[in-house]
């Protein structure tokens, strides 16, 4: 039967079942057979002597005594019976199944599956059958189902669909790749992934599908990368090396070796005739802004204009002030364009921009308005790129004929995620901090220490420094007993009354109020800023030396690290206190990790391990696909191999013409990257 045939062609699929399957996004036989189980129930008989405590186990044994039933209240009961399993006498406990008493005759053979308590020699039974095992099904697939669909019914439909499509399914992986990695053929892997004979064969089937998924994804990324690089009229920026060296020599500090390496990577791209599409990663305070300045100056020496887009007005102003100071001796014209630049002043900026009198334009999303036109835009830099939507970034890029593009982020992204989410980009990493920066001292303390911590905070305030206090919620919640920003603000306002000014910042404030509060904090008019995570990416306040994060267990590791990065920007020793009473082991591990290292990349890897890729980025904006089988954390070796293979395939002539890769090219066409077999 054709794998495109509707599922209604299967025996037992009536109108109601077809609707339930449609809700599960299953309409064809192909949809059905490619719906993989999320786990398998292991019914292999185990030797209890070799089974670890608290593990799930299936055993076969003989009933040794009369079962006893204890009724525990309405519809609740506990049935206990002694069973001889091999040479072990064990207790089998059935909850809320008092009816099993009649079946558990002395001498009867039973098969039991449940959790093994080694110390008490007891099995808490989750499923059972009377009589010895005869079906031989050691592994049963378990699927994510909806509505009234049952596992047993779905397994029957799956078996039917696999039989109906057998012999008619195409294997998309070239034979040469299958041989290199010793991967199972498609149909064999498909049968095995649903109904494996044993754990070893399931592992081999999973290997096949993990690699195939990652290869297909990486092919899309590499094809996109090739398409971007070879875009018609790619920007060629022939910068003046001597002028660039003079600018670097005039900076008030020396570049770190990591900054030098990254500058070389960016400048090399700018000289090439293709469009640069590069992601610059660097921890908070690692010196990304100076790298951006060098790249922008390189564009200016080639007679091009540059643009830098930041997520907030205050950050844009900060960039403009810094760049103006650095560029003043070199005669570079820098202008600022934000929502606050209005009327006559705005018209003047727009006219000077299109006339080519402005070399560098710094701003917020105001840069992407239709009336903002450049004379010769050569380089576009987006700061904190994940704060802008894909469309916003594209509009700025489209203001010139394929300008070079540099995205910057202070969110350390583990290599596996950078390869996946930004696979179509080249990635540069600043993995070294400037000399002389003091590490932020981080402490994890329990909530009953709040009073002492506020006292320690006041010592910093009396020394003329400032503090952040971060809370996870804006207002009180009936369901979540976490401290909130409004309540903390009220408490601290009363505590510091007459001594230190306290400000409040959260996402529900009007943008103008947010800007005003941040400006007052930056100018030192506010001593303590109580805020939600809206300060995670924001203004540089070198005078802020103390941060208190309330209910710190509510935040992911990367977010905690980003928040901590708001302090430690000046010459004074800075402190970060995590106030938390985590209930879980993961929560405790997070707190310990934060006190052990200031390295954002180490923490990002740990966060990825603890939370998984979707939660790390936030699924909606991550650009990370939902894989059927692959797991980016555990399958990173396969990801690296798939990336290498995809690069080689896309670069080879044979990929575009060979029959062996026809199926992979069709996949690229379906995704819209290829048109008529070409990268158009």
From TrEMBL:
<dbReference type="GO" id="GO:0006281">
    <property type="term" value="P:DNA repair"/>
</dbReference>
<protein>
    <recommendedName>
        <fullName>ATP-dependent DNA helicase RecG</fullName>
        <ecNumber>5.6.2.4</ecNumber>
    </recommendedName>
</protein>
<dbReference type="InterPro" id="IPR004609">
    <property type="entry name" value="ATP-dep_DNA_helicase_RecG"/>
</dbReference>
<dbReference type="InterPro" id="IPR047112">
    <property type="entry name" value="RecG/Mfd"/>
</dbReference>
<dbReference type="Pfam" id="PF00270">
    <property type="entry name" value="DEAD"/>
</dbReference>
<dbReference type="Pfam" id="PF17191">
    <property type="entry name" value="RecG_wedge"/>
</dbReference>
<dbReference type="GO" id="GO:0003677">
    <property type="term" value="F:DNA binding"/>
</dbReference>
<dbReference type="InterPro" id="IPR001650">
    <property type="entry name" value="Helicase_C-like"/>
</dbReference>
<keyword id="KW-0238">DNA-binding</keyword>
<keyword id="KW-0378">Hydrolase</keyword>
<dbReference type="GO" id="GO:0016887">
    <property type="term" value="F:ATP hydrolysis activity"/>
</dbReference>
<dbReference type="InterPro" id="IPR033454">
    <property type="entry name" value="RecG_wedge"/>
</dbReference>
<dbReference type="GO" id="GO:0006310">
    <property type="term" value="P:DNA recombination"/>
</dbReference>
<dbReference type="Pfam" id="PF19833">
    <property type="entry name" value="RecG_dom3_C"/>
</dbReference>
<keyword id="KW-0547">Nucleotide-binding</keyword>
<dbReference type="InterPro" id="IPR011545">
    <property type="entry name" value="DEAD/DEAH_box_helicase_dom"/>
</dbReference>
<keyword id="KW-0347">Helicase</keyword>
<keyword id="KW-0233">DNA recombination</keyword>
<dbReference type="Pfam" id="PF00271">
    <property type="entry name" value="Helicase_C"/>
</dbReference>
<dbReference type="InterPro" id="IPR014001">
    <property type="entry name" value="Helicase_ATP-bd"/>
</dbReference>
<comment type="function">
    <text>Plays a critical role in recombination and DNA repair. Helps process Holliday junction intermediates to mature products by catalyzing branch migration. Has replication fork regression activity, unwinds stalled or blocked replication forks to make a HJ that can be resolved. Has a DNA unwinding activity characteristic of a DNA helicase with 3'-5' polarity.</text>
</comment>
<comment type="similarity">
    <text>Belongs to the helicase family. RecG subfamily.</text>
</comment>
<feature type="domain" description="Helicase ATP-binding">
    <location>
        <begin position="269"/>
        <end position="430"/>
    </location>
</feature>
<keyword id="KW-0227">DNA damage</keyword>
<feature type="domain" description="Helicase C-terminal">
    <location>
        <begin position="463"/>
        <end position="609"/>
    </location>
</feature>
<dbReference type="InterPro" id="IPR027417">
    <property type="entry name" value="P-loop_NTPase"/>
</dbReference>
<dbReference type="InterPro" id="IPR045562">
    <property type="entry name" value="RecG_dom3_C"/>
</dbReference>
<keyword id="KW-0413">Isomerase</keyword>
<keyword id="KW-0234">DNA repair</keyword>
<dbReference type="GO" id="GO:0043138">
    <property type="term" value="F:3'-5' DNA helicase activity"/>
</dbReference>
<dbReference type="GO" id="GO:0005524">
    <property type="term" value="F:ATP binding"/>
</dbReference>
<keyword id="KW-0067">ATP-binding</keyword>
<dbReference type="InterPro" id="IPR012340">
    <property type="entry name" value="NA-bd_OB-fold"/>
</dbReference>
